[in-house]
Amino acid sequence: MLPLVQGTHLLLPLVQGGERGGSAAAAFEYSCAILKGKPDQRPMSLPIRVDGHSPVKTMINPARVAVLVETSRGHGRQIIDGVARYAAEKGPWSIRLEPRNLQDPPPRWLTGWDGDGIIVRCESATMARAVLATGLPVIDVRGSVPDTGIPLVGVDNDSIADAAFDHFQERGFRHLAWCDFVGRKRLWIDQRRGRLARRTADAAISFATFPVRRRARHGAWSPREMTDLKDWLAGLPRPVGILASDDEQAHTVLNAARQLPLRVPDDVAVLGIDNDEIFCRASNPPLSSVDVNAVAVGYQAAAMLAQRMRGGRVPARTYLPPRGVVTRPSTDIVAVESPDAAAALRYIREHACRPIDAPHVAGYLSISRSTLDRTLQTAIGQSATAAIMQVRLAQVKADLANTDLPLTAIASRAGFASAQHLANLFRERIGTTPGRYRHEMRH
Length: 443
What we know:
Elements: E1 5-6, E2 9-12, H1 24-35, E3 63-68, H2 74-90, E4 93-96, E5 117-120, H3 125-133, E6 138-140, E7 152-155, H4 157-170, E8 175-179, H5 187-202, E9 206-209, H6 223-235, E10 240-244, H7 247-259, E11 268-273, H8 277-282, E12 288-291, H9 294-309, E13 317-320, E14 324-326, H10 339-351, H11 358-365, H12 369-380, H13 384-402, H14 407-413, H15 419-430, H16 434-441
Parallel strand pairs: 3-4, 3-5, 5-6, 7-13, 8-9, 8-10, 10-11, 11-12
Antiparallel strand pairs: 1-2, 2-4, 12-14
Helix pairs in contact: 1-2, 2-9, 4-5, 6-7, 10-11, 10-12, 10-13, 11-12, 13-14, 13-16, 14-15
């Protein structure tokens, strides 16, 4: 029997044929067990069919790939998951993986390592120099160090901010805020905050940012820093929707809000980024978050590294859109003062994917169509028709990302008259075809 685990290496075999025990899914499930640290699961080999003969056990020249990605945070673990999926499907790869934090220095073994390629979350110039010095093909999945010449696969920060803005706008928020605690320049933070500021300005929605002090360290908050955060929260208009730069920081915002106390989500609705299930579930109430599709980033980075290891060329920059917002109790509210607007938004959220239109909503409220549109325009800056379409397209995106349903079924589920109508509208509004969007969400 050939072991799958050798030291700090994770060996994922090439699997072919139809044997249940020899499927790519089986290889992936086992790799996940290793990544999750289940030492009670013994190494195994997977059978492969060759030319119709009985399964044999084999390993064929696995590519040696170092994955220098933090295992300490959900975003990094999701990227590793994507790499493991690619290796299970397209391998064999021997993955060198070890516990890491994002700020850790290059591993000492990297100098002189006899490998074939590297996937790295490049957080510092020191790390960039170290991976480039190996002379091996490298793919970056961070993008913090500019002008390295390393091909980058990352998340689309504008689309992340757009998803958050749409989430709050659907719920009627007229006051939004951004919170990050980094205290130093970060391109991805600047992009997300800047995009949200532009969207709120265009919609005439008030916008505030937390005046963070420059921080010399990462980690626990001092009493003074927590006081600054609580003072800022207490001074915000209500109800307010707050987008934090990641789930860890959103969790801190929730804790500060509850200490004041502020009602969540009635006074303050908090949305994170990354959909790190540990922080989302440990928060009180459970935290809504933008799923940035980090698994797809890992999968695409692995595919591009494979191309480079074959001597091929890859794009200098590849940005993938988020999967959307995973709604949990921290933002599950309709936040408008007008009773008619609140009732209209609840009705739209519950019935938009049925064959309804603006007159249906007006009839439900026993008001005129023009009154309905004026009410919603004042409350959320949208007409009833636009609000209905926003909910329908969100449903379409979710179905494309999470199901194998054909477009005809998705169109019907979302209230569209035909698949062609949906396809045309999707391309016009989203900027890509439904098929391409599904492919991006599915790696």
